[in-house]
Records
---
Amino acid sequence: VNEKGLKALGVEPIARVHHMTVVGGDPVIMLEAPIPGTEKALKKAGMKIEDIDLYEVNEAFASVPLAWLQKLGADPARLNVHGGAIALGHPLG
C-alpha cells in the first residue's frame, strides 16, 4: 500500500519492508537456507542483524530458527514473536 492508500483507509503502517532478496540452496541442506538469505539481504541493505526490530523465520522444523539464531547471533526474544509456522499448524512440523 502506498501513502495515498494509507490515507484513504485511515490507517498507520505497522511495519516497513526495508529490503528483500532471493537465494537458492541445496535441497539436502535446505533447512539452512534462511541463513544465507538473511546474510545476503543484510549485506545488500547495508544493515546488521541488530538493526532489525523483529525477525520472522519460516520453519517446518524447530531446528531451522535455532540454527539461524546460532549462526547470526540474533536476539531470540525478537524471533517469531507471534509464533512461527509450527505454532500456526504447519503440516510437516
Note: The domain at 3-78 is CATH 3.40.47.10 (Peroxisomal Thiolase; Chain A, domain 1).
---
Amino acid sequence: MNALLLVTLVLPAQNDKKVNFQDHVLPVLQAKCANCHSPDKKRGGLVVTNFTKLMEGGSSGAVVKPGDPEKSSLFTTVAHKAEPFMPPNSPKIPDPDIALIETWISAGAPENSGSKTMVAAPKKEIGLKSVLRGRPSGPAPMPSKPLAQEPVLKSRRANQVTAIASNPWSPLVAVGAYRQILLYNGDTQELLGVVPFPEGLPTVIKFSRNGGLLMVAGGRGSATGKVTLFNVTTGERVTTVGEETDTVLAADISPDQSLIALGGPSKMIRVYNTADGKLAYEVKKHTDWITSLEFSPDGVLLATGDRSSGLFVWEAHNGREYFTLRGHTASVTEVSWRQD
C-alpha cells in the first residue's frame, strides 16, 4: 500500500515537468548519437549535443522543425520512418526514447524548462506550380471568380499609369494606379476587376513565369515599401514581404517562385522566401538607389542595377557576388535576361 502511494505521489511531479532539450532529450542524444555527431566529429556537419548547433542543422539542412516531428529528420530517422536510419547499422533506439523526441518536437522544441516554444508558422500556399521553361499545363491563368469592379480610389481627372504587365500565357493585362491594380482582358479590353494595393503607389508589376501569380511592388516615398503576391485566378493576396522605410523601386519573383527580391532607395538588395515570408539574405554593395533587378530565366543568378551605373550579378540563392558588369555610364533603369 505504501509503495502504491509513493508511485502516485512521484509520477505527477515528473509528468508536470515540460519535456525539454536540456533535461530530457540531451541525455538520449548523448547516449545514442554523440559518437558520430559531437563537436569533435560532426558527421554530416551535425552536432546534437548542443541545442544551438542542433537547431542549426547539418550540411543537408535543418533536422528539427519545431511543432512538426513528421517533418523533422531527427525524429523520422531514429524512428526508422525515413532513411538514412539512425543510428547507422544498429537497431532502433528504444521506443520510449523515440516517443520522448517526438513529444519534445511536437511541444515546440524548448531548450529548457523555462524556454518559450518555437513552433514554426505554417508555410503559405503560393498557388500554381512553377515552371522554368515552356508553357505550363492546364488552362491559361485568368480570374475564375468575379472581382471588385469599382475602383478603390476615384479622381476627377485621369492619373498616371505607374506600372503595367501582361500575363505570359493569357490575355490578362495588369495596370497600376494609386492604391489599386486594374485587370483587363487584352483581347476584348474589358475591365475584369480591381485588386486593392493599400500600401500606396505601385512601381513594379510582374507576373510569375507560369502566369499564376501577380507581383506588385511599391509603397509610399520616405514612409514604407512592400512587395505583394496575388493569386491570379482568385484575386486573393498570397503573401506580403518587405519592411522598407521608402518605396520599393525594383522587384522580381524567381522562376521557381521560391524567392522574392527587392531593392530601392535603401541601396540594399533584400531577398525573401515566399513560403514563410522571412528574409533569406541581404546584400550591401550598391552605392546608390537600386532601380532595377531580375532573376535569370533558370533562377540561378540575380542581376541588379542602380541609378549611378552600378550593375552586378549575384548567385540568386545565397547572394554571393558572381561578377560586376562595367562600362555602363548612366542610370540603369531596367535589366532583362535573354531566354537562352
Note: Residues 2-15 form the longest helix (14 residues).
---
Amino acid sequence: MQPTRRHYFFAGEYFPLLYLPYMQPIPPQILEYLPPVPPGYDIGYYDGYGLVYDPNTLMIISVIDLYRY
C-alpha cells in the first residue's frame, strides 16, 4: 500500500472548495505569536499548513508548511 501524498499549497493559488469543510482555526496559543491578519482575510489550518486566505475568493496570500519545521 502506497502512502498518500499531501496536497501542496502556494501563495497566489486558490484553496480548493472541496477542502474548505476540513479547514480548522489556528489554536489561540499559536495565534498570539503571529502578526495580525490583514483586514478582509482569514487564517486557518489544514493538513499541516497555516494559511492566510481571502474567504470570498479562497485565494491564498500566505502559507507556511508547519510539518517542515
Note: Residues 24 and 45 are 5 Å apart (CA to CA).
---
Amino acid sequence: METVTIQSQLIYFDKSNLKAEMRMYNHDKSELKSFIWCSFVHYDLLNLKRANHADDMMQLFNDILNPINAITFEERLKQFKPQKEVK
C-alpha cells in the first residue's frame, strides 16, 4: 500500500457556492498523482432549496480563500504539466 499526501484549498466562493481544489501527491510531495475540482452548493434541507451562507461562514471562507491563476480546469492542468525546454 502506498502512503499519499492530500492537500485541499478553497479557490472560489460566493453567497451559496464553494469551489475547492484537491491534490493527491506521493508521500514526499515530489509527484502529483491526481487533482480534482469540486463544487458545493449550500442547500437547506428543511426548505428544500438553495440557501445563502451565514455571515460567519462567509467571513471564514474569505479568511481561507486561496485563489489560483486559472479560470478553467484545463488551464490549471497545464500549470501542473512539465514544460518542454525550447532550444
Note: The chain has one domain: 4-80.
